Amino acid sequence: GAFKKVIEHFGRLDIVVNNAGVNNEKDWESTIQINLTSVIRGTYLGLEYMRKENGGDGGVIINISSLAGLMPAAFQPVYCATKHGVIGFTRSIAVTANMENYGVRLNTICPGFVNTPILQSIDKEENMGQYYSYKDEIKNMMQFYGVLDPSIIADGLITIIEDDTLNGEVMKITASQGIHFQQYNQTPFTSSKR
């Protein structure tokens, strides 16, 4: 419904940001549904409205992951798995979008710890489950790596929106290095039917 209302009001859809994130190791199935399944669903809905072959005008889809999607996250294995999934899905669909000439770019942003209410979830046993006793270790990691202000995430978002050369890129945002990109080896060869 939200996608339809945007089209009705603005006449087109240019930008989709899938920013879904909860930290609930106890209710891990819900964490998977919110952090990964909803991002996939939002991406596919966006592509339906934006793809040039469907009459769309193209655009950009940005899926928010986490640094936990690029490395292990002690005491948050399900959260970590979902954020790895967001990166793998986005990078893969970006290759497809390029090969099939969708006219849509897809990228991922991976921030470190950000000063948002999700950080409070580590203090709650109903969220952390069996990992609740490790809350101080997680807080020590937050102190070591630093906590980002949400405004720098917005800056990264604007960078991706405005740079038409970015597709399939994974932007990292950390307190120590600011905005930068994950370096990967060359994407494996993929054939195209076109």
UniProtKB/TrEMBL annotation:
The enzyme class is oxidoreductase
The UniProt entry, under Pfam families, shows: adh_short (PF00106)
**Job description of the protein:** Catalyzes the NAD-dependent dehydrogenation (oxidation) of a broad array of hydroxylated polyunsaturated fatty acids (mainly eicosanoids and docosanoids, including prostaglandins, lipoxins and resolvins), yielding their corresponding keto (oxo) metabolites. Decreases the levels of the pro-proliferative prostaglandins such as prostaglandin E2 (whose activity is increased in cancer because of an increase in the expression of cyclooxygenase 2) and generates oxo-fatty acid products that can profoundly influence cell function by abrogating pro-inflammatory cytokine expression.
Q: What is its EC number?
A: 1.1.1.141, 1.1.1.232
- Return the protein name: 15-hydroxyprostaglandin dehydrogenase [NAD(+)]
Which chain positions lie within coiled-coil regions?
Answer: none
One GO cellular component, as annotated: cytoplasm
Lineage top rank: taxon:
Eukaryota
What's its catalytic activity? prostaglandin E2 + NAD(+) = 15-oxoprostaglandin E2 + NADH + H(+); prostaglandin A1 + NAD(+) = 15-oxo-prostaglandin A1 + NADH + H(+); resolvin D1 + NAD(+) = 8-oxoresolvin D1 + NADH + H(+); 15-oxo-(5S,6R)-dihydroxy-(7E,9E,11Z)-eicosatrienoate + NADH + H(+) = (5S,6R,15S)-trihydroxy-(7E,9E,11Z)-eicosatrienoate + NAD(+)
